[in-house]
Amino acid sequence: MKQLLQKHKMFTWIVCLVLALSVGFAAERIYAYFTTYATAQGTVPISLGSQTDIHEEYANWKKTISVENTGEVPVFVRVKVLCASQFEVTAEGTNWSLGNDGYYYYSEVVLVGETTENIVASIQKSEDVKSDFNIIVVQECTPVMYDENGNPHTAENADWAMSAKYSIDENGNTTIENEEADDE
């Protein structure tokens, strides 16, 4: 029995020694795995050219909205005004028209650095509603597409699904390729 116990102790020590050596040899790799990091320098800005900033002001149950083109290409703009079901919202503005999809489309091309004319969203509230409200304005823009004669498409017929092909050259310049021209 004593001999069996000694063999068991020796076996345990050998197993511990083998494990310690294994961990010792792998420790460097394990430590490297958990502490390795890589650094990168330099950047390549990628811009698809269209970017806008929305400006909103609220007073007297009316929200005045305008959209500024801060991108690199002329764009079309559309906005959607949403609120809780107990409120009714209507919007009006020069060069703005309501589309079938619930968006208000700005009919003019918004050139780089320009801002749309205001659209004013008015909230009609019934007298029995005594709750807070939140008006959400969703704004989208898309680069202006031109026909074969160089005339811009209309805002409602613009490429809102962004199906056009964009290419970026080695200098970071963006070119928009109209799919309609590719199909011809």
Can you walk through the features of this model?
This protein has 184 residues and is of the alpha+beta class. Helix content is 21%, strand content 32%. It has two helices and ten strands. The chain has a four-stranded antiparallel β-sheet, with no helix packed on it. A four-stranded antiparallel β-sheet has the order 5-6-3-8, with no helix packed on it. A two-stranded antiparallel ribbon has the order 9-10. Strand 1 (52-59) and strand 2 (62-69) form a beta hairpin. The longest helix is centred in the first third of the chain and has 34 residues, at 2-35. The radius of gyration is 32 Å and the shape is elongated. The model is unreliable at 179-184 (pLDDT under 50).
Task: Describe the secondary structure blueprint for this structure.
Blueprint (H helix, E strand, L loop, with lengths): L1 H34 L16 E8 L2 E8 L5 E8 L4 E6 L3 E3 L5 E3 L12 E7 L10 E8 L21 E4 L5 E4 L1 H5 L1
Antiparallel strand pairs: 1-2, 2-7, 3-6, 3-8, 4-7, 5-6, 9-10
Name the structural class. Answer: alpha+beta
Radius of gyration (CA) equals 32 Å
Element-level helix/strand string: HEEEEEEEEEEH
Please give the number of β-strands: 10
Shape annotation: elongated
Mean pLDDT: 78
Widest sheet, order of strands: 1-2-7-4
Question: Distance between termini?
Answer: 93 Å
List low-pLDDT spans.
Answer: 179-184
Level of helix content?
A: 10-25%
